[in-house]
Amino acid sequence: MHRPIGRFAPTPSGPLHFGSLLTAVASFLDIKSRGGAWLLRIDDLDSARTDRKHAADIINMLARHGLESDSPPIWQSEREALYARAIRRLRRSHQVYQCICSRKTLHGIGAYPGTCRQAGIEVAANQCTRFVVQKREISVEDEVQGRYAEDLTMTCGDFVVVRRDGFVAYHLATVLDDADMKVTRVVRGADLLASTPRQIALAKALRLSVPSFAHMPVVLDGSGRKASKRLASTPLSALSDRDVKQHLATCLQLLGLIPPKHCGHSPEALLDWACARFTLRAVPPVLARSDFVCL
Known about the structure:
This protein is an alpha/beta fold. It has 2 domains: 139 residues, Rossmann fold (3-Layer(aba) Sandwich), CATH 3.40.50.620; 99 residues, Rossmann fold. Helix content is 32%, strand content 16%. The strands form 4 sheets. A 3-stranded parallel beta sheet has the order 1-2-3, covered by helices on one side. Strands 4-5-8 form a 3-stranded antiparallel beta sheet. Helix 2 links the parallel strand 2 and strand 3. The longest helix has 15 residues. The two termini are 40 Å apart.
């Protein structure tokens, strides 16, 4: 039986925030409690939005919390050949097509109506590439959120896999990276649950294995807004060692554990303690509004 493999894949568009830290801890505990390997992937494909300095800060902050990858980090920006091969394969099997519809044209439209599907547009600049979806329900048995299903023809229609600026879209890059890294378990935030049917559709179209999924509850700040880089009030790089251990203990509590009252242990020791006790069955699908300030 193959060793389980999990991953954490932050986008370095800003410093690590608490919501991402919670997901990283959950992913780490889930795979380590199963005797698996935890990998780090830096989703830096969009060079206009990402920065290597932010990536270095994220890697450093994860390490301060005892979260270190079992192999050197993988950089999405270095994997363009992998994406190009997949696009060629999808074109040969007529599962994608070129689209010239502008955002203005599509404003107010829900699911893409397939305007360019039969147009036979040749590949050129300033176009996107869309994946042809089939009319059928695609479901996932999420290990935290329960069953989730969509008919993609109704919710989004043929979706973009290569953007107008030439960058491979998130859904395709994620599917290809996870398959190439042999990821068997994807633990990430519940805000990405709706992405899962699209990614399953792509994986099946490319005849790739589909990992199991567990979507963690979204962390809210004191005003009930999702914790994000834009809402970050305290740069994680400014935290003391005591703060690091306290925030790690808070993550464990939100994941259904009761950490030791005195967090004098090192982050590594606290994670070892948690690995022996962690189960996804204890993770709540939704968090009540958090009283602590978003980091």
